[in-house]
TrEMBL record:
Subcellular location: Cytoplasm
Domain AAA+ ATPase, chain residue ranges per copy: 159-344
Domain of life: Bacteria
The keyword Cytoplasm appears for this protein: yes
Native source species: Neoroseomonas oryzicola
Listed InterPro entries: AAA+_ATPase, ATPase_a/bsu_AS, ATPase_alpha/beta_chains, ATPase_F1/V1/A1_a/bsu_nucl-bd, ATPase_T3SS_FliI/YscN, P-loop_NTPase, T3SS_ATPase_C
Keyword terms of this UniProt record: ATP-binding, Cytoplasm, Nucleotide-binding, Protein transport, Translocase, Transport
Name of the protein: FliI/YscN family ATPase
Region feature Disordered, mapped onto this chain: 107-139
Biased composition (Pro residues): 117-129
Amino acid sequence: MRPDPAAAAAALALVPREAVQGTVTALGGLTVTLAGFGPLAAIGDRVRIDLPRAAPLLAEIAAFRDGMAEAIALGPLHGLSAGARAVLAPRPALSVSEAWLGRVLDPMGRPMDGRPQPAPGPAPRPTHAPAPEAGGRARLGPRMALGVRALDLFTPVRRGQRLGLFAASGVGKSTLMAMLAGGVAADVIVFALVGERGRELREFLEDDLGPERLARSVVICATSDTAAPVRREAAYAAMTVAEHFRDQGRQVLLLMDSVTRFALALREIGLAVREPPATRGYPPSVFTELPRLLERAGPGPEGCGGAITALFTVLVEGDDHDEPVADAVRGILDGHVVLDRRIAEAGRYPPVDVLRSLSRTAPGVLDAHERPLVAEARRHLATWAEVRDLVRLGAYRPGHDREADAAVALAPAIERVLAQPKGMASDPDEAFSALASAMSMPDSP
């Protein structure tokens, strides 16, 4: 009699995971080779490896080769040797609850703020979950005030929109994220700090976020010294937390810093299991996982009422905005904001390059009287970028080009509108009123 695959799968599902044991047979680089699991283990499963003189080590199965499972450890391999016992553990899941608000947790939901473990929710949620069905998702909501004039004017956002913040290191991404956390009218804020510098966590919490904003926030952090699967899991855990509150009908703001470090963690995992490097050293699985994560943000299922408005920072290597990760993320999201080092060095914060920034929803967000005002301001800034060097060199002669003369007169006033100190929030009406005033009272060249 031919065996029934469905019956076999059902029988395997009844086997307790804790009873499935294997053995470490080899160690190499970042990988641990395991034998003895057979068909009971699958990609993404966790295993707990017993160490003789330390706490058990968790690892995640990332590949199978020659009948053996290859896992990436979620911690250092010191003290691990061949022959160690490995036990199949539950897949990653989080029991999110109201008690998570105001907390700083690692990707496994363990406290990083010195406080007790938060009370669990009624049911655990898998961290690796699919995005809502495309045909069953709600549409984007109304305009969402971001509290930053440069963004409210030139890259307006609707509820449930996903926007990328593209910048090189040290340009001001963290400062802009703090401004957004204080200016956006959201019920819950979820921060994903992926590969964060350890010394900067308290500075961010105490100086940039503050106790009032932290009270309505959940911070998921994996520092740069953690293993690649932990850094990757920080992004998935934060998305899971955001989905929990979205499904309750709340408006969630998700701020992830950064997608690039998430992609680097994926690259480490892929290369460790001998996946061939493709685009600039990134294996193909990186560009498969990026949309699986990013597509989970946005409006919830129809009738849910909640939405995840997400802003993802992208660390562009060497100021190259066409590098593979930046290019892939830009094609997935609903808009991008470019932070420019030259603008920051000139002293204007936030250093948003409005000419290179774009919101795909802007045509449906701007009112009839706002659209021509923004278009005219863009035109003046673009012309000013062309003639700015001539003005500084003293080679510009007014009276030869009316468009250039208007740009020379108006651009400094527009730049002053875009400047905004940290800790100051504005609303779209105030921003458009300031822009209209700047363009109606030109400075002298």
